[in-house]
Amino acid sequence: MRSSSEPVRTSSYPMAARLERFRDAFDLPAAACAAFGADEELVTAVCGIRRAGGPAATIDDLWHYGSIGKSMTSLMIGRLVEAGVLHWGMTVGEGLAAMPDARTSALREVTLLDLLAHRAGLPADPSRPGLLQYLLLGGNPGQTSARLLGNALRAPRPPRDGDFRYSNLGYGLAGAIAVAATGQDYRTLMRRHVLDPLELCGAGFDRPLRDGSQPVEHRYALWGKKWVALKPGRRLVDDLEIVRPSGDVHGRIADLARYGGAHLRLLADPVVQAGPLGMLYRPVGSSPEPGADWSYALGWCIERGEDGRPLFLHAGSTGSCFAYLMLDPADSRGFAFATNAFSLAWDEDFMARLRAIWF
After folding, report:
1. 252: Cβ–Cβ under 8 A, 6 or more apart, which residues?
2. Which of 132, 240, 271, 334 is deepest in the core (most CB within 10 A)?
3. Model confidence over 157-206: pLDDT tens digits?
């Protein structure tokens, strides 16, 4: 029996057939998608298998959302801004004032807005040697995360010309500021301000179980040209607090659609757009790349459709899975997709065919 908090779900043979053709074209293990509107009604489809020789994927399976979680972190921080706990101009030095390293850091004048819009000039990830040491040798996650945060604060001042530089580390610092301001850990904040209020009933943290009960993530091995399943028990960096804010959420395809529908409603509300949450959807700074036809807000890429309408989107991957979310506010509709595989060879043709499932 469907919960009253569940979106109205229907199936669509045409979309299911397009999804199956897409999966076949790229030899994906499994894939799921959903077309949805602001009214929460959605059409879903799923096809494929959880892993080679395993059972078929189901519509209620769990998929990792990857960097789509950045817009979730931004929404959580936006809620704290609404509540007066934080403000968009809060600096690293102000937000992490209890840390001596922050008060003297080259990053002390970097703001939350800089961090969430990838305008702080930070590297893509926390110290790679530190992450590699943790992956290979292990250690205490809390101590490792604190050490990586300290390394970031003590690093030389990055280029601060306001250029776009995509940074998972920036989101880690923004998450640390939210944690310091509230005294609550990152996942508690996400539950309280995003997952529970939006009733994302199947959503959780970390990667889904890899015991065969959920789709198993796959990487593409160039040798032999085949998919290789992620092995159970492999050490991951997702248990580091400084990594989680850049993308730590998993859930059903229906949860991702429900999340997208919530943003469609926020985008359509003039009161919201005039308030603190309106900042989530406003491009920050100049074009991310010379001649680029897209811009970046807080966890959202913004493209212009052929008719000039804005499209809000973001993709996410752990390196062995892929998720995608697109919003068309003008038509109050959106599209969500997930697969348990990822390849660096996917290009513009892959994205064009992916969008063709929906359009």
Report:
1. 59, 60, 61, 62, 63, 202, 203
2. 334
3. 777 667 899 999 999 999 999 999 999 999 999 999 999 999 999 999 99
Instruction: Look at strands 9-11 and 42-48 and give their pairing.
Output: parallel
Average predicted confidence (pLDDT) for the chain: 91
**Residue whose structure tokens are 């790229």:** 26
Distance CA 156, CA 258 (A): 42
What tokens were used for 162? 């306001």
**Residue with tokens 């179980």, as numbered in its chain:** 209
Which tens digits make up the pLDDT trace of 4-39? 455 545 556 799 999 999 999 999 999 999 999 998
Long-range contacts formed by 293-296: CB under 8 A, 24+ apart:
296/117, 296/118, 296/164
Which residues 6+ apart lie within 8 Å of 201 measured at CB?
3, 5, 6, 255
Q: Are 58 and 253 in contact (CB under 8 A)?
A: no
d(Cα 263, Cα 325) in Å, to the nearest integer?
11
Neighbouring C-alpha atoms within 13 Å toward the C-beta of 322? 20
Strand partners, 46: 32
Question: Looking at residue 275, what is its pLDDT?
Answer: 97
pTM value? 0.93
